[in-house]
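Figure-free illustration: sequence to structure, shown twice.
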Amino acid sequence: MSYLRLEKAVMTNLQESLVREYLRTNRSGAYSSSTLVDCNTRKYHGLLVVPVPELDDENHVLLSSLDCTVIQHGAEFNLGLHKYQGNNFSPNGHKYIQEFDATTVPTTTYRVGGVILKKEVIFQHYEDRILIRYTLVDAHSATTLRFRPFLAFRSVRQFTHENATASREYSAVDNGIKTCMYAGYPDLYMQFSKKNEFIFQPDWYRGVEYPKEQERGYASNEDLYVPGYFEMPIKKGESIIFSGSTSAIKPSAMKKLFDDEVADRVPRDNFYHCLVTAAHQFHRKEKNHDRYLLAGYPWFKCRARDTFIALPGLTLAIGEVDYFEKVMMTAERDLRAFMEEKPLSGKIYEMEQPDVPLWAVWAMQQYAKEVGRDKCFEMYGKLLHKIVKYILDGKHPNLRLDDNGLLYSNGRDKAVTWMNSTANGRPVVPRSGYIVEFNALWYNALKFCASMASEKGDVKGAEMIEKLAAKVKESFVETFVNEYGYLLDYVDGTMMDWSVRPNMIFAVALDYSPLNQQQMKSVVDICTRELLTPKGLRSLSPKSGGYNPIYVGPQAQRDYAYHQGTAWPWLGGFYMEACLKLYKRSRLSFIERQLVGYEDEMDYHAIGTISELFDGNPPFHGRGAMSFAMNVAEILRTLKLMEKYSYQK
């Protein structure tokens, strides 16, 4: 039985199928996404969604969807599905679905009377091209297929509406047409592997509605332009391939291209392989060969903190050291430029966040554990030295090294940590001053760099760093450890945040901890009792004031819930690392049970990947972005850690 297979009962029940989404990416920033029944429920959904750098730094929906109609004996059976205003669904093509299988290539099988039609969809790697193969598995009489494309030509953050500006012009190309609705956009090529007839029948389909946007308190409807339809006969056993792209393709090349792309896919036949495929979806290769990691889909860009946190899990944990090095090469260039107060040339956002250099050190530390310290020193020794010196010299605009050895950052007016939600222009959680994970990362960075310096014969440098680390350790305990056995979240002068939050787990999980064994166990115990869920650690304990665990409603409502009780799988990764560090093999079975909570997500929400966050209360619904890099990364890293501890005596 297939690992990611959903039967007719699920697919034809819209309450079940509309909450399940798919995601395909080309590893260069473009993607294809919708629900499993191809009914778009977000403005971010689309069959071909691509970056258009000539316009802006956003993705743009060119081809919203492609409706296929089966015609026999003059009777038409439209397999498409759209939601219109007034809770009207049309043309209800989902009722013909027999099954959906996403194990290798997402495949939908339709049955219309005696007709069995199989649809397989794939996104070509590194090209803005979606490929769909339709195979007539069975038919007892002459069959014709009709394809009607729905065009948007808009940013993912906007909507399109019927207007007189949109161009209706089109040109014939090999087995298809090319068209462009607005100036500045690339041409959209729609071609088939088989000769067909294009019937020009321009019209606007009005009032298409996106319920996910309604739920989020946004505008939720638009009009889509249909230039006409393609029509062709198909015989039993025959396959026809559709290509939607920003460039032309020879129809004769489509079959080999489709087969080659299928052969390049990792079958999603188990939990691990699903996560590997999800990891690859975050890759972004630019034309200048820069390599990035997107923070998530569908709306996130490349962010510095996310890059360094996710990098080890998305690369090293699955044996892809080379991609780690390629991403680090791009990220190092921008990190150095920031530290040298030069313009950034890349596409990584939020490099100015004060904990970014600390997470960069952590990422390189994971690299050292994978390839050895000698190789790490050879690759990144100069960068490590530069980061530590940069912080010691007080060069960062919002990271002050105080006499007690701790790092101070001002987050009262602008969010500076990963808990970055804002309301009315101010942080919802104004974490400021001595921030617990900043200083845990700082101690870890100092100890790691001191050990590297010592191994390379820099005795004087190592002693200097060790001396500072000892001061940090003493100050950390004095500042953050409280009489209740957990750590204060941040301390700013006389202001102490007593909220029980997950950020203290880093002080245990990191290789070098400023805490003693008893203090570490106490932190883990409290995280287990008050923060642990099947989907990761809560961002706030239910016992703390302001607990708000359900991430729903309009933007303002969601902003106040974002870090006030919602659960985050990536934090669960560090929690599980802390458990293994303290209890070794005795906690393996416990962690295996924790991972079941993540595996349950493989055939729900976005198929084969992990949502951005989850409600902090049962039933722990997935919320936010459909796929989040740090979550996938930390689950993969946990699996690698489990493998390591399994072999330890």
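We now fold a second protein in the same way, so the two outputs can be compared directly.
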Amino acid sequence: MLLAFLAFFPMVAALISYLVGRRSKSLRDSVVMLSCLAEFLAAAAGIVMVIGGRTLSLEIPGFCGFGLSFELDGFRALYALVGAVMWLMTSMLSKEYFAHHYRNRNRYYFFYLMTLGATLGVFLSADLFTTFIFFEIMSFTSYTWVAHDETPGALRAAETYLAVAIIGGMVMLIGLFLLYVTLGTLRIDELYVMASACADKGVLWAAGLCILFGFGAKAGMFPLHIWLPKAHPVAPAPASALLSGILTKSGIFGIIVVSANIFRADPTWGAMLLMLGLITMLGGAVLAVFSVNLKRTLACSSMSQIGFILTGIAMSCLLGEENALAARGALLYMVNHSLFKLVLFMAAGVVYMNLHQLNLNDIRGFGRRKPLLHFAFLMGAVGLMGVPLFSGYVSKTLIHEGIVEYVHLLSEMGKSGEVMLYTLAEWVYLFSGGLTGAYMIKLYICLFWEQHPTQQGVHEAHEHYMSPLSALALTLSALLVPVLGIMPNRTMDPIADLAGGFLNAGTPAHAVEYFSLTNLKGACISLAIGVIVYLAVIRPLLMRTENGVRVYVDRWPAWADVEERLYRPAIAALLHWGGVIAMIGSEQVLEERIFRPIVAALTIVGSICAKLLGSVTDALAYCIGRTVLAMRRPVDHAHVGNRVTYAVGSVADGVTEGLNRTLWRRNRIHHHFVGRMAGMWDGLMDGVQRITHTMSYGLMLFGLGLCVTLLYLMFYHG
């Protein structure tokens, strides 16, 4: 019952809160907070059970043996508690944050609780099929967070987020099919034994790469990170805290499953993952250094910190049985990063709900004479930077020691070339940590030490800048950073002992001396690099003097946007060349022997299915649009009614028109075939464009994905 409650109660509470919200907003807010509190108490009860030696499991039957399965062990209980804490704290802030300048709060809270259930469903899943189902639900429900403001920037960022989620989910599904066909199971606790006995390692690698693609997209791993720097700045601050702090960890969850089971102690997989981690780590840090937007800086920081976690997972694979330090470091880094981003994004939310600005030049000096905000932000900053006596130092030190340990092993084996490469990796790790220090120093000084040239008096006049409830959420979250970091052997080590088995973490040969001179040396190197970068790069090069005032300048080149300069043109080129390739096949034999028999059979079926699917998805879109997803902008009456049917119908009409000309105009086939194919292609693209501008686009794709999954499960008899 506890597992079912954790996964499904928030979804029921979402519906209740929505219905209550139609009558009373204040009562709705109370229902949401009480629901999050109930989830927290259930998660706390679960972790008490696990500490007491109990494990729980739940099976919900389904097609062909593929139902939903859940399990509660150390890692799952820990992250259920982390998720519940984050939702509880952000719900306390959300009441004030949304009270004055936001609309569509009912919609936000509905998907807020739906995402809570889906996220805990991911972390509690006992097999990858269950993981996939809840992972996809989570992606679609959290999409509304990014699109919440409904500004052009928010809608474009949401479009990118949804595209990455859909593509990643479908590629992951392919990997899961391959994995199941090869191993005969998707249960996480069976993967290692079955993968070890599998002789076809090529198929395992194909499946592993597809699964890595899907989970890496959600985690924000390079080169699938494009959604992260754009989604966080436009989403409401409480949602940004969850996107960064917990939803990215759902991607890390899947990467751990693959790395610790299918590719356990595989040096090739570890080396590949390390390369991706280092690029993600360094790239995100560089973007954050250049950013002049508070939430964008924190978003780019999240990308960088995901790279640190990936580095720890990679070193765990490389070290094999000697992976105790690296694996425990990766686990603790996950927990710490969730905590830091909870604190920092909530602090950013306090700034935004008072000023409605995020540019550093507009918000500078806001934190002066605000000791509570100052304390909370400082705790998040020093924790993220890895300052000794704060929890972030512990996880950074463990991963760094894992890299050093592997370098020593290579040296003992006489592999001098690899020693140089991994020594370089160590310095990339330390330098990226230094950049973390540089951009956090920039934010801290900007907010709490500098003065605004014209609005400082207005900033300091905000005496009641947050409610007692918001202050409580921020303070409690911030206090955890020093509490966990001052005595790590009594706080962080027990957490690693409880949950480390999920990462196949070994047991350290002896207690780690966190504050030894050797370990302090690595932290001091990174902090020194951070101070140098701030003084030698940020102050002189990323600021300039205007009217006698030093201002922050965005010097990141506009052309260096991977999404706009690479991905979108690549997709456009793919669509273009797809049309060209279709037009090339203009020989009569292709038309007579292939195209005509296929399209003659599919035309009628395709038209009926398109109309039927359009009607169903339009009905869903209409219902949701009138209730949960009601937009605040006026409706264009030219498209009221059957918009999705019209959109899908345009596909059928375009295809049918081209097919008719193909089937019935037998003369001059070669001469006119190119024109007919172009007409079909134009009709198809016009319909697709109409579909993608409706909310039911996501519902339709999600439904298609589930249909593919169910058909496979129903008819596969391998």
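Summary for the second example: The first strand starts at residue 56 and ends at 63.
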